[in-house]
Each structure stands twice: as C-alpha cells, then as structure tokens.
Amino acid sequence: MSTSLSLLFQRVAPKLWLTRAAGRLASCRQAWVAQALIRGYAKWYGIDLGEALHADPKAYASFNAFFTRALKPGARKLADSDWTSPADGTVSQFGRISLGQLIQAKRRQYSAAALLGDADLARALGGGWFTTIYLSPRDYHRVHMPCEGRLLGMRHMPGTLYSVRPEIVQGMDGLLARNERLVCWFEHPLHGVYAMVLVGAAIVGSIATTWHGQVAPHGRRMQQWDYGGLAPLRLPQGAEMGHFQLGSTVVLLMPGSAWRFHPGWKTGRTVRLGQAMADRR
After folding, report:
1. Which residues are part of the catalytic machinery?
2. Which end of the chain has fewer CB within 10 Å, C or N?
3. Distance in angstroms (rounded) separating the CA atoms of residues 100 and 182
4. How many Cα neighbours within 13 Å face the side chain of 9?
5. Position 95 pLDDT exceeds 70
6. Neighbours of 84 (CB within 10 A)
7. CA torsion 145→115→256→233, rounded to 10°?
8. Phi, psi of 70, deg, nearest 5
9. Spatial strand order in the sheet of 240-244
10. Considering only 76-85, 158-167, 169-178, 264-273, which range has the smallest mean pLDDT?
C-alpha cells in the first residue's frame, strides 16, 4: 500500500473499534486461538524466542502474555552511560527542544506542551533534549528506565489511535501529540526532572506501568496521579517501568544540561535496551 493510501486509511478507518476488537482477540486464553496467533506472529516477524525467559510458545496463555514477554536475565547489558536506551527499537528522531518544539519529521514539529499536557513541565524541559524510539511489532515491548528516577507523577492523555509507523508519523502533523499517551515524569538526583511519554497507537490494547498496572485504555478524560508523597518510588537505571500491548513509540524528554549523544545514536538506527545513549559533555 502506498503512503498516501495508508494515510487515507488511517483517517477513515474505525480505529477505536479495530483496537478494541484486536484487544479482545489478543487476550483470548483459548489455547487453539492463542497458540495460532503466537506461532503465526513469531514466524511472520522472525522473533527470536531464544532471548525470552520462556522460549516455548506453549508457556504463554494468551497472545498478550507472549507479546509482553520478559527477557532472560542478562539478555541486555546496561552500558556505563548517564543515559541508556529505554527500549529495543529504532531511533525516529533526536535533538534539541527548541522554543518548546520537538521535531517529528522534516518540516514537521509539535510542541512539548501538547505532548505532555502540561505547560509548566514543558517550560521546565525547555532547552533540553529529546529522542523518539519506535517499537516495531517484532521488538521486545517492555520499557525501562534510561537513568535513575524518583517518580513524581503520571498523566493519561486521551487521544486518537493513528498508527505510529514511521511513514504515517512523517505524513501527519503532530501525530505523537494527538494520539492517546501516558506521560510519566521523574527526578534524577543530579540531572533533574525528565519525562517519558508512552504513545498509544492503532491496535495497541493498553499501556501499563509496574507501579500502577494497566492504565484504563481509550478513556475520554485526562487522568493524573501524583506520587510526590512521603514514600517516594525510586527506580534504578535499567529497571522495568512499563509495557505496551502491541507496538508503539516512546518519547524521552531530557533536561537542559550539556548532553552529548553517543555516536551510535543516529536517526534510523536500530537500538537495544541498555545501550549507551547520552553522556554529560
């Protein structure tokens, strides 16, 4: 399908209905349904189950359980770097947050305030840096901490459910700030406040975090949770923080320090969880 036809389909397709239908199918625990989906999907996308904690497809009671599978201990090494990749995926973009704007694609931008749903947090991150990582259907779909962080808050932003495939993102203005998304912000003892945005998409059944569980998918109202209380949650670098059920995108917004991205961190480059991303200059 050409890009123009794909964009047209994205605009007219019943995305919410398709996503809900896919979610019900993916959660089905009937073995004949789940195993057919798992084996067909693994074969189609060439998924390496040798890295998984459970390499036998029969160990997964549903497609969702397979899709959010854990890795074997030691399958990903954590680099000695200030910031490490929070996920397996492909670098879609990275660069400076300039005048409150992030680059989506050539000649396309969107605002940090729209993405975060919080003008004050956007101002605090102004002049900082960002990177966007696309998780394809074949990737490991758990998201981890890029550096140590004390959880400050979480916000679920309602929105549409366009596909986040690179050609679709490049073809629509501000798509990542229009889709449903989960915004989490943290504080590092030295780096300061930073934010991670887990962007939902077509066929993404839900987004979950390790501290909250599944966040109510496809709601119509913004919800916010504050965690700056007396018993703060601190997550070390590399710790799991959440997961997608089906593929999507992570946007990381870093504070305005003098960071230098690692030479291997390039647009279009495949990256792995834990690899070096950026260090202080």
Report:
1. 88, 144, 248
2. C
3. 19
4. 11
5. yes
6. 25
7. -40
8. -85, 160
9. 142-144, 240-244, 207-209, 213-215
10. 158-167
Total residue length of the chain: 281
pLDDT band at 217 (very low <50, low <70, confident <90, very high): low
Q: Is the pLDDT confidence value at 241 over 70?
A: yes
Chain position carrying tokens 């997964």: 60
Of 196, 199, 200, 171, the residue nearest 108 (C-alpha): 171
Both tokens of residue 42? 């693994």
Residue 216 gets which letter from DSSP?
-
Which pairs from 11-20 meet CB under 8 Å and 24+ separation?
Answer: 13/202, 15/160, 15/161, 15/162, 15/202, 16/161, 16/218, 18/202, 18/203, 19/161, 19/202, 19/203, 19/204, 19/205, 19/218, 20/218
Angstrom distance (rounded) from CA 145 to CA 157:
21
Based on its alpha-carbon atoms, the radius of gyration of the chain, rounded to whole angstroms, reads: 18
